Amino acid sequence: xxxxxxxxxxxxxxxxxxxxxxNIAHRGPDSFRVENISHYSNCCLVFYQLAIMxxxxxxxxxxxKSHPNIYVLCNGEIYNHRTLQKQFDxxxxxxxxxxxxxxxxxxxxxxxxxxxxxxxxxxxLLDTAAKKIYLGRDTxxxxxxxxxxxxxxxxxxCSEAKGLLxxxxxxxxxxxxxxxEIIPFPPGNIESYDLAPSGxxxxxxxxxxxxxxxxxxxxxxxxxxxPSGEDVxxxxxxxVTDAVRKRLMSHRSIGxxxxxxxxxxxxxxxxxKLAKESGIQYPIQTYSIGLEGSTDxxxxxxxxxxxxxxxxxxxxxxxxxxxVLEDVIYSLETWDTSNIRCSIAMYLVSRYxxxxxxxxxxFSGEGSDELAQGYIYFHKQPSPEVGDAESRRLLKDLYLxxxxxxxxxxxxxxxxxxxxxxxxxxxxxxxxxxxxMRCPQQGIEKYLLRKAFDGTGLLPPEILxxxxxxxxxxxxxxxxxxYESLQEFACxxxxxxxxxxxxxxxxxxxxxxxxxxxYRQIFEKHFKGHAKWTPHRWLQKWCDSDNxxxxxxxxxxxxxxxxxxxxxxxxxxx
Length: 574
Prior knowledge:
CATH topology of the largest domain: Rossmann fold
CATH class of the largest domain: Alpha Beta
Largest sheet: 6 strands, antiparallel
Number of strands: 17
Mean pLDDT: 90
Oligomer: single chain
CATH superfamily of the largest domain: HUPs
Radius of gyration: 23 Å
Structural class: alpha+beta
């Protein structure tokens, strides 16, 4: 994780504009570099480094002696860089995984390079010899990037939108969308630009280099782990395990977020197991968070004891949660209610990790609910085909919701998050299975994923088969759900008259509740006129109630994390 920022073709004071990049300094607390491009005085590249691989020679903008005309800014982790280096007999000059991008670009161009990367990334590649600029972002948008392009040939990019504010001349009208607005760069795409001697740019084309429907090109390399045979459970187990194993690549210490749900528990259990097998000497730390009496805290405690992690429990009060609400929304750059609710706890636990531990690389379980149909509303899908379409839609929107949350809440505290359940090899295989296999089975969501690890001893059965609990609900106290505390707080901040006037004040997706209104007015305070960064609310489908602003769905089972499910009970749900 790091922060990238660049401008091309500026008519303003470049040094002054570079001050905007300070808004993302939290993403790279270890060091930074500002570099002007030779013969292009109105262009500038800025990099904020969180040193994970090769802190000495891996600094960016990256250039290497064999190709001095190429500059690379890349916020990413490329897990197959050594495989590709060996495959193509490449001569590395650094220990940085991002160096592979230069070699692949020279070998086959920007689109080819992006399609060969097994990892997560957002990059800007400048080729001064060809006078070209290329922007690219990974398929699920795990690593963020925003882009500002003006008609006069000015281009600016940044890891977070806040680093571009002020460069758009203060666009404030939520209903108009001028050509120069700040937009999230589309995941899975490459954009190419011509660079004129003046530094001005011209957009040439945008190409989708990878989609959910296709296997990535790198999966054809013989050394890649390949699913074999017809045993679906064995293949899923193989791919999930390999997804975790490749992400152990780090020169910094590793920890895991652990809610006690099946996703984070599987990831944490595999990290501990594979770390021992790879020779990592230090203990893997795990972190859970919740209000007093949280079921997630109890479940995570059981998992940590089972896998033998060095476990940390973080408790917070409703007052402590609402106290950081504005900081959370500023970090997220979204007004979506469900995302904000979940993000407060993730922000607080990330702050704890930064202050109280030495861990920097943090594993998390994002992506499974979208891939494996984990949300409770999938039980009501009209047909497997409709459920499959909804699953794919959620995956395409991840960069606006769960992936955004995991990146911003950790990056705000100088941490790097890794999400193995969004590994391209795993997701490509999983989505290739018949739709009827991927929908909830026998009353259990994520059945395939759970069944793949059943009987392995990796997790206690009561955790492996624990019913889905929304993150914002699982961290709630026994006395009062977390969302009720947030709603009560919002009612103190928003009057009936204010809510009644919401359509006039916020014509784009006007808030329907006081909680939504409060989040929206905080968002507009910092990002006025940019509500369309979140094009729509997170919505559940096929439910009778129109609770369109919340993920809260009553669970279909009561689960006590400190009580084991008997073998007889387990047999009923398997």
